[in-house]
Amino acid sequence: MSRLGDLFCEDGILEKKIEGFRFRPQQQEMAEAVSQTLEEGGVLVCEAGTGTGKSFAYLLPALLSERKVVISTGTKNLQDQLYKRDLPRIRELAGKGVKAALLKGRSNYLCINRMNGAGFDNRASVPVIADMLEQVRSWAGKTRHGDIAELSGIPEDAAVWPLVTSTADNCLGQECPDHGACHLVEARRAAQEADIVVVNHHLLCADFALKDEGFGELLPMADAFIVDEAHQLPDTANQFFGLSVSARQLQELTRDTQIAWRQAAMKKAEVVDACDTL
User: Fold this and answer.
1) What is the spatial distance between Cα 217 and Cα 206, in angstroms, rounded to a whole number?
2) For residue 146, which phi and psi values (nearest 5 degrees)?
3) What residues pair up with 67 in beta bridges, in sequence order?
4) Between the CA of residue 123 and those of 116, 173, 181, 212, 226, what are the distances in Å?
5) pTM of the prediction?
6) Is the pLDDT assigned to residue 39 strictly greater than 80?
């Protein structure tokens, strides 16, 4: 029997080691199809009903494949579940010391430089935002990864996040005075070194768009991609392979310019007048 057969079969390793696990022939069939595709190359489109155990059916073949595999999920919540719950449960059972990494888009990581400058933003004077900013500053001294999902007490759409996270437009890159402590840089470095990298469709499409434009890449080179919840991919792809500009983006540009102007204590009023005009 193959290694996968030992794991998924009736009275197999998974059934013995994981409480509540039950043998499902459809799951084993899917796992073997994924394994074969990883081994031989090509494209596999696989649909399986609820309760089949799709996550295990592609995770274990990926762990056993000895290849660099990028796994993309439909949402950040599923991404966290996959990395923090499913992978740890089965990595030891695979019997391999596989390195795994979680990678999200830059707006999901604390930007130390923007946090330090947030006090110069007029929005920080709003009591509710000021209180959340203090929570962020307190957490910033403790976090290892800087993933804002760790601060579960602050809603994902809270107004404080644009003040303490960066975008591709306002990130200073290697010119940033806090570049050496950047959480995003560290997350990308870990992804480069990992065998399994767990991302989401948003980041996957952002990476494809960058490569398509010839401006580099966000994700490490991989031997294979596994796209979970693939039916959600077209809607996400539509956001990236087109051009758009919004009033919000222009407002963010003027705010960032005004913050930089205040930090530099510039005297020329033309900058402020130009921002007001815009």
Assistant:
1) 9
2) 70, 15
3) none
4) 14, 24, 26, 37, 41
5) 0.79
6) yes
